[in-house]
């Protein structure tokens, strides 16, 4: 079977990232509030950090290495000049998306944390809610609003108050935003667990508004190390699989059964592991529910999962080969620009290699139709379908420089004969988050 030409694919990425620009809060706060807003500070070492309420939040190199040589990947803080402009400038982002043949993108935040945990840690909750709403307004109105049909808006929730979360879901829904971020393990943020009815106002609002809840790896706990002397490769291997624990939490929680219209997206976790997890969940239910007192009625845990949970992958040939066991109607794709796992600018080529013998209708489902349905985006209301395809978008970006550059500086470990360990990474991060030099 000859599969679809890569030039004819339509790509929608449900997981990319923003390095927030310095003027983020310029247009969405009063003069009085601007004095308390996060601001960008240049340190003596030349790196740029966001500074807020006495803390600094650097742009870590590994989170924005797109366009760099892999030999220069590392955890050191960077400046805006060291980053590819598409990481923080929306106009350059569109050019980079065109160069990669990507029609639309959902972008998670950087310095506030993937689910906005920064705002929940701020003591003055009046400041918290004001900054959070300003961030959401900037993201929806300026970042996504600059190019209608090219971005899926994503809101951050005020995690400290479920009623306020519900109010914010409803507020941004009126602005056309139907996706909200949440934590993979709120208990790790010193909040009630996924199993607590504490979150019911939030789930209810998302159900009512048709808002999908996006749960990104690393949104509930810091990087997980098996030991401090383990090579950092262990963490890089296991990090996506952390989302499997969240998936198990969701399957066995009351949430998906109590809110039948709720949809949850698992971001950056891959899909190859899903068939076994679902197989195991069904086995556990059949063999143990008599004493664990779980009740799914006439359905199975796997069926509940596939009905409610949207999955996504970057580069996952095992998952594609087992797509029907994963749940074809739930699979979406991500580019992960500008993080180190991204397939930019060769995403279409990487995907096409995995789509041999996959029918065109299934390719369309995976590359864009599922995403457009679950995330409620209609790009074709703004752009003709034929202009949304990989070939057409790349034709708009022939002048985009795709060459790699050397700007990030030294890697974490100066000794390239010695593997970088977890302790090296922890030490580098600790240094990056120290108070700015005067």
Q: What are the SSEs and their pairings?
A:
Elements: E1 11-17, H1 31-34, E2 39-42, E3 48-52, E4 55-58, H2 90-99, E5 102-108, H3 117-121, H4 125-144, E6 151-152, H5 162-173, E7 179-182, H6 200-209, E8 212-216, H7 232-238, H8 242-252, H9 255-258, E9 264-267, H10 274-292, H11 301-308, E10 309-313, H12 317-321, H13 323-326, E11 331-333, H14 347-354, H15 360-375, H16 390-395, H17 422-432
Helix pairs in contact: 5-6, 8-11
* Unreliable residue runs: 408-414
Characterize the main sheet. 5 strands, parallel
What structural category arises from helix and sheet content?
alpha/beta
Distance between the first and last residues' Cα: 64 Å
Number of continuous helical runs: 17
CATH topology: TIM Barrel
Helix proportion of residues, in percent?
Answer: 25-40%
Total number of distinct structural domains: 1
Which band does the percent of strand residues land in? 5-15%
What does this structure look like?
It is a single chain. This protein is of the alpha/beta class. The chain has one domain: TIM Barrel (Alpha-Beta Barrel), CATH 3.20.20.140. It contains 17 helices and eleven strands. The chain has helices at 31-34, 90-99, 117-121, 125-144, 162-173, 200-209, 232-238, 242-252, 255-258, 274-292, 301-308, 317-321, 323-326, 347-354, 360-375, 390-395, 422-432; strands at residues 11-17, 39-42, 48-52, 55-58, 102-108, 151-152, 179-182, 212-216, 264-267, 309-313, 331-333. The strands form three sheets. Strands 7-8-9-10-11 form a five-stranded parallel beta sheet. A three-stranded parallel beta sheet has the order 1-5-6, with helices on both faces. α5 packs parallel to α6 (200-209) and α8 packs across α11 (301-308). The N and C termini lie far apart (64 Å). Residues 408-414 have low confidence and may be disordered.
């Amino acid at each position: 079977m000859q599969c679809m030409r890569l030039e004819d694919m339509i790509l929608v990425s449900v997981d990319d990232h923003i390095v927030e620009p310095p003027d983020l809060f310029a247009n969405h706060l009063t003069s009085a509030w601007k004095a308390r807003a996060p601001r960008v500070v240049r340190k003596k070492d030349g790196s740029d950090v966001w500074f807020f309420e006495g803390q600094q939040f650097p742009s870590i190199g590994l989170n924005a290495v797109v366009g760099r040589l892999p030999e220069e990947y590392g955890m050191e803080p960077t400046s805006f000049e060291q980053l590819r402009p598409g990481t923080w400038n929306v106009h350059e982002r569109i050019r980079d998306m065109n160069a990669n043949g990507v029609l639309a993108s959902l972008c998670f935040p950087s310095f506030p944390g993937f689910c906005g945990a920064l705002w929940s840690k701020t003591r003055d909750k009046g400041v918290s809610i004001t900054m959070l709403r300003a961030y959401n307004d900037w993201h929806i109105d300026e970042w996504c609003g600059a190019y209608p049909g090219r971005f899926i808006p994503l809101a951050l929730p005020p995690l400290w108050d479920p009623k306020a979360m519900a109010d914010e879901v409803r507020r941004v829904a009126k602005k056309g935003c139907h996706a909200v971020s949440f934590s993979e393990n709120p208990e790790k943020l010193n909040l009630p667990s996924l199993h607590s009815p504490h979150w019911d106002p939030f789930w209810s609002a998302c159900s009512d508004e048709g808002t999908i809840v996006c749960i990104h790896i690393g949104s509930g706990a810091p990087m997980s190390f098996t030991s401090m002397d383990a090579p950092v490769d262990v963490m890089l291997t296991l990090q996506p699989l952390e989302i499997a624990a969240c998936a198990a939490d969701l399957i066995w929680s009351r949430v998906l059964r109590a809110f039948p219209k709720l949809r949850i997206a698992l971001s950056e976790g891959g899909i190859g592991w899903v068939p076994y997890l679902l197989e195991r969940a069904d086995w556990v239910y059949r063999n143990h529910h008599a004493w664990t007192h779980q009740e799914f009625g006439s359905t199975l845990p796997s069926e509940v999962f596939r009905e409610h949970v949207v999955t996504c992958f970057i580069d996952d040939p095992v998952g594609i080969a087992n797509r029907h066991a994963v749940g074809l109607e739930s699979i979406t794709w991500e580019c992960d620009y500008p993080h180190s796992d991204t397939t930019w600018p060769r995403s279409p080529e990487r995907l096409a290699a995995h789509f041999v013998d996959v029918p065109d209708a299934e390719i369309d489902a995976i590359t864009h139709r599922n995403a457009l349905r679950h995330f409620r985006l209609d790009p074709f209301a703004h752009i003709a379908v034929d202009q949304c395809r990989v070939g057409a978008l790349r034709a708009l970006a022939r002048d985009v420089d795709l060459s790699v550059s050397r700007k990030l500086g030294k890697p974490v470990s100066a000794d390239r004969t010695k593997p970088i360990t977890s302790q090296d990474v922890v030490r580098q991060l600790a240094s990056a988050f120290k108070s700015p030099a005067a």
